[in-house]
Amino acid sequence: MLWPINKQFRIAPSLNWFGAILTGFLLFAAFPPLEWSVLAWIALVPLLMVSASSAPRVAFRLGFLAGVVFWLLSLVWLTRVSWVGWFFLCLYCALFMACFALTVAWWIARKGLRPRFGNPLLVLSIPAVWVGWEYLRAMLFSGFPWNPLGASQYANLRLIQTAEVGGVYLVSYLLVLVNAALALILIQYVRRQPGEPLRMHRELLIALLGIVIAHLYGTMALRRLPAATDILKVAAVQVNIPQLEKWSEAWTTEINNRLRRTSLHAIEHCAPDLIVWPETVVPDFVRTSRVSQQVVADVIQYGTSVLMGSMDFDDSGHAVKYFNSAFLYQPGGSAPQTYAKRHLVLFGEYIPLEQWIPFLRVLTPIEESFTPGREAVVFRMGHRAFAVLICFEDTVAGLARDCVRAGARLLINQTNDAWFDPSWASRQHMAQCVFRCVENRVSAVRATNTGITCFIDRQGRIVSFLGRAEGILPDPDYLTQAVALPPADMPLTFYTRHGDVLGLSCAAFTLTLLAGMVWGLRNR
Known about the structure:
Helix 3 runs antiparallel to helix 4 and helix 3 (45-52) crosses helix 8 (163-191). The chain is an alpha/beta fold. It contains 15 helices and twelve strands. The two termini are 26 Å apart. It folds into two domains: 5-225 and 501-516; 230-490, Nitrilase/N-carbamoyl-D-aminoacid amidohydrolase. The longest helix has 29 residues, at 83-111.
């Protein structure tokens, strides 16, 4: 029996809009600040049901409404930087959810429901469509991989272990698998005719089987992680400088004093091997600043290395190039090892087409665009190797993967979330970093100016953290941890070796469906 579903299953227009809005609110609640992560397992059910009952063009509008509600609420912290940028970014992200609803509505209308056979094609393909659009959002136009659905489960240790195979997209797939099964079952109950016998719903069995396999895999993965062969004692400094004061000349002395005082206190009490300062922590260019170099010298004289964030520049060409960089200073006076940030934030660190469309500067507070770095850099402290991800680079899975393939056995995220504090941006940001650890089976250190300074182990467990500082001018603080480092010849995970095979495959499948829909409309 075949049901052309969006012709025989109808929902009142008012309930259509309600279902879309409800999905937006449920998705928002699954992420920080509320973190009701269980809602991610049902959040898409209302949108799937109203999309299934609608023509594709109507489903597109409903999906767009759901996306607007979710993104406007989830990213409201961006208004601290730019109201205009926040609004248009949310509209852009909502388009991907609109395309998801459009594709699903067309696909369901084309295939119909097959209750007798359990709709295996639909229940398996709907999650692929979601992951496909999620992957495209992370890649197109430099990408915005913020808040993939799977990131809502960052605290679900067993489930997220599957990320070492398929990345965060595999977790997203499993979530939507359950959503799709529930939606299809509810549609069949609503559509059921009086006297029609009840059937066993194979859709739910498929979803439960996927979740059971994922949890069994996660349980085994948590037990079989090989022991570390080395330990690196790290102190992460949280300076707690308000963003409005960070570049003020009047605060230069205070910033340097905070760095010196907090670092020396960490050395005295914990004797770390490495002290990590946050992104662009000094208010000048450390290469040319005697003041900043003296602060570094005051710390490394006690035998501890310092990893610091600072702006850098290159004036050897026709125009000066500016970089957002990390510098590793080690005792002994050798030249610092350096990394320049590769993935710059659109309108936060560079303005696209600024030479031809200068009025775009009104969308951003920056004065000069940075230049992206060209390659992954592995910092070396003897036989220990680590890599740096600056600011939002830890949301880009491919960058972390490149670093581990190049030999890094620890990831360090230097960031400055003071742009958005106080807000829930810090916790959303931290959730993304958890998956970089699981995907590559390396630990991570996060050092923030303000935000959440923390240590994450190779299983994605947040082992210790400093919460967001409270008050108008909070004191600086630091956090120490003995970080376990795997051996240089550790076996690389499937994800580290092969990358986003799942995401790319789902994107190809989704675009194929989209092309089929366009072809069908043209022929009609």
